Amino acid sequence: MKNIFGKFNIVDIIIIAGVITALVVGFLTMKNFRQTADKQIEATSEISFQVFLRGVTVTGDEFPVKAGEKTFITIRNVPYTELEVNGVAYSPRQTAVSSAKTEKQYVLVNDPSQPDVYDAVVSIKDVAKITKDGAVVGGNKIKMGLPVTLEGKDYKFNGTISDVRVTYDTKVEDTVMDKELG
Asked: Do residue 94 and residue 30 come from a single domain?
């Protein structure tokens, strides 16, 4: 026994152990004891998400992001793709002012110290892969709070995702979910 270990050094033993481990993992994956990333996808569905843009300065006559136009999406500083804008809601920055004339104790008025600053919500639709952890778009899980950049020919705004909605009425692929159901 000592002669066998005398012929191998520690590096050889580590390499052999690594090869054996890789073979075992490969065998378990082949026999479906271990899930790979593509088997974790339960469905492909259309999602709608909203991007909140806080404190956007616009000195022009109209807001540059418009419904029906395309905007290029960057998720976590990784370029994704160009998607269509479904809706845009924006309002000038407001401040609370106390009021004795109304039933409320305060009234919201446009902030005169920031006349060209707006808050906006941009709605966007895309097709996503649905996993147990949520929707995945462009290799990123789409969740509230995720940093997103919207870029068009006239603008580049940084915002965060403020809402994600999944539409489950599209077809479900033959995946783990189908196998669990039937």
From this structure: no
Rounded distance between C-alpha atoms, residue 136 and residue 155, angstroms: 26
Bridge-based pairing state of the strands 43-57 and 117-131: antiparallel
What range defines the domain where residue 84 resides?
A: 37-180
Domain shared by 98 and 143, yes or no? yes
- Is-above-0.70 flag for pTM? no
Both 169 and 126 in one domain: the answer is: yes
Could you tell me which of 42, 71, 69, 67 has the C-alpha nearest to residue 134?
A: 42
Euclidean distance between CA atoms 149 and 53, whole angstroms: 9
Give the tens place of pLDDT for each residue, 75-101: 988 899 999 999 999 999 988 888 877
Residue 13 and residue 58 in one domain: no
Cβ neighbourhood burial of 120 (10 Å; 0-12, 13-18, 19+): buried
